[in-house]
């Protein structure tokens, strides 16, 4: 058992991206934040499934070319192999929870020049 305080961790890109509260041994748990206009490169996972739960704001999460506009209180499940891309097209910050499982040290495959 352990406890982690969010304020003791940092977002990957300063004011945006994932902030991992746990990485492994069986799953990843992160808070993810994007400012207006920010995005996260399209990618997929070979083994891990990914889930997002929207805490604040709204975001477009494109999965295999389909735009899913999500708002506070909504949840999306993404299967291994599904290409996904997140972009904040709103005028306010977005904050969401991300989980990835089963844990793999390296499982993210970037997709170059993603069009949807």
UniProtKB/TrEMBL annotation:
InterPro entries to which the protein is assigned, alphabetical: Cupin_2, Flavonoid_dioxygenase-like, RmlC-like_jellyroll, RmlC_Cupin_sf
Domain (Cupin type-2): residue spans on this chain: 31-98
Entry superkingdom: Bacteria
Transmembrane segments: none
Protein name from the UniProt record: Cupin type-2 domain-containing protein
A Pfam family recorded for this sequence: Cupin_2
Organism of provenance: Clostridium magnum DSM 2767
Listed PANTHER family: LIGAND BINDING DOMAIN PROTEIN, PUTATIVE (AFU_ORTHOLOGUE AFUA_6G14370)-RELATED, QUERCETIN 2,3-DIOXYGENASE-RELATED
């Amino acid at each position: 058992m352990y406890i982690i305080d969010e304020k003791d961790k940092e977002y990957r890109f300063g004011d945006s991206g994932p902030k991992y509260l746990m990485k492994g041994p069986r799953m990843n748990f992160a808070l993810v934040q994007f400012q207006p206009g920010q995005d996260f490169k399209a990618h997929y996972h070979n083994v891990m499934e990914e889930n997002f739960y929207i805490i604040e704001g709204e975001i477009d999460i494109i999965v295999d070319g389909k735009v899913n506009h999500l708002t506070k209180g909504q949840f999306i499940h993404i299967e291994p192999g599904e290409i996904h891309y997140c972009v904040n097209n709103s005028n306010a910050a977005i904050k969401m929870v991300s989980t990835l499982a089963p844990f793999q040290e390296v499982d993210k495959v970037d997709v170059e020049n993603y069009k949807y």
